[in-house]
Amino acid sequence: METRDILIVSDLHLRGGYHNPTEGLYHFDEEFADFLRYYRLHRAGHPWQLVIGGDFIEFLYITDPPDPRAPLLRGASFSASEHRYGAGTEEHKARWKLDTILRSSHPQLLLALARFIAEGNEIVLLRGNHDAEMFWPEVQEHFRRIVAEHHPADVSYMAMKEAVAARVRFAQWFWHVPRLLYFEHGCQYDPFCSFEYFLNPVMPECPTRIEMAISELAIRYFTNQMKLLNAMAAENIKSVSEYVGWVVKGNLSMLPRVLRLYAAMVRRVLAKTGSADPAAERAVRAEHARRVAATDERFGLPAGTAAAVDALHATPVMRHRLATARFLALDLFAAGGLVAVLAAWIILRYPARVGLLGVLGAAVVLGLVLYAGALRFRHVTEAADLHRSAERIARLFEVPYVIFGHSHTAGTWPLAGGRTYVNVGTWVPESEEAYFVYFAVTGEGAGRHAGLHRWNKRAGAPEPFAGDAIPGERGAAAVPPAMTGT
């Protein structure tokens, strides 16, 4: 393979749609175009390889109603559920969603990608849990087609089409550069977002559809419906229990509608919980195992290496009814109901025993503290799971850098043997802050530099992220001269 310098980003979560009230919330096409333009103009001897690590296209948040008259949906049929919650995950419906998102909202980004490719650079796309529909070959080919159609004025469509065919790749799982890095989205180590069979993520009983994780089902059946009521409703809230807190704190007028949406989500999610038909699942598992074994051959790895990575994945929550119920906060509501019953019993049976109510109130407060602590601890343990997985992968692949996205928490953490776990975070802003973080590798051999950087929108140039420096092959990695803008 031709030597290339490398840029790694993840979790852009591009939204869109012609009737989507949230399509403009996370719109940073201008920043991304400036970022690509800078690196097109600052090539230090090698072409660039831009690796986009999943959750690039936000398939889950498109709420445009499916229209069977649309050219890309001609002949498709839709259930009542799809008319309410959005098109399903079949190949042709996913292609329509991709087309709607990109054409409605991201022509500037598409043009920037096309120019980047036309100048000899390469793009590699990985899948995450929010763009799992990129699994379908027809969707991948349609992405190439859309980029080619947004060719620069000085590049013909046919020339652009050839360049895209040659230099836009889809990595079906992870990206590995020998003796340098391993890059994977990271959702496989999160039980709320993982797939049991990532290389064949279809529903065993209906293999024309993607099997969605519980967090994705919650977005489909609850979060999207909330945003149709209020486009800015509870942005950056990540769990049902947090939605409950948001409503109680100052949005009580929405409580009846929220409860109806919640009940509908619970009913639909529980209906999908549990094990699949054994015979159907065996077929899906066998194809997944075949593709895992083929991954070793594709990357020239010792036999069994990819299988060892696959064995690290977290079992999806949806496979266990009790875990599903806890995710849906049914345990919290059950506890609240029990407290209400006990309080009523005390008042009716022992009206003079006010002390008992005090004891019950103290127990409720203690329970809420423990529950809040459990939520925080879960967040900590999820980050620890990514760190532990990075440690094991670094040993398996013998690379200095293991890189994930998914968690939206950018940073670097040391691993044993002088290796480093890197998380490139997200370009999605939390509150008013947007960091536009990415990992860059330039040079080769003893002259290689690697570091985590932030795109400075105001300066139009990169800067080290949060002052972090990642040890390179020659000690601390500074921003290389070709990346300083001077």
Walk me through the structure.
There is one protein chain. With 486 residues, the chain is of the alpha/beta class. Helices cover 44% and strands 14% of the residues. It has a seven-stranded mixed beta sheet. Strands 5-6-9-11-10 form a five-stranded mixed beta sheet, covered by helices on one side. The two termini are 31 Å apart.
End-to-end separation in angstroms reads: 31 Å
Radius of gyration: 24 Å
Q: Unreliable segments (pLDDT under 50, ≥5 consecutive)? A: 376-381, 467-486
Number of helices, counting only DSSP H or I runs of 4 residues or more? 14
From the spread of the alpha carbons, the general shape counts as: globular
Derived from helix and strand composition plus strand pairing, the structural class reads alpha/beta
Q: How much helicity do the residues have?
A: 40-55%
Main sheet summary: 7 strands, mixed
Spell the H/E element sequence: EHEHHHEHHEEEEEHHHHHHHHEEEEEEEE
Strand content: 5-15%
Largest beta sheet: what is the strand line-up? Answer: 4-3-2-1-12-13-14
Query: How many runs of DSSP E, i.e. beta strands?
Result: 16
The average pLDDT value, as a whole number, equals: 84
SSE layout and pairing:
Layout: E1 5-9, H1 29-41, E2 48-53, H2 80-85, H3 91-105, H4 107-118, E3 122-126, H5 137-149, H6 157-167, E4 168-170, E5 175-177, E6 181-183, E7 202-203, E8 206-210, H7 214-229, H8 240-250, H9 255-271, H10 278-299, H11 305-310, H12 321-327, H13 330-349, H14 354-397, E9 401-404, E10 411-414, E11 420-423, E12 437-442, E13 449-456, E14 461-464, E15 471-472, E16 475-476
Parallel strand pairs: 1-2, 2-3, 3-4, 6-9, 9-11
Antiparallel strand pairs: 1-12, 5-6, 7-8, 10-11, 12-13, 13-14, 15-16
Helix pairs in contact: 1-4, 3-5, 5-6, 7-9, 13-14
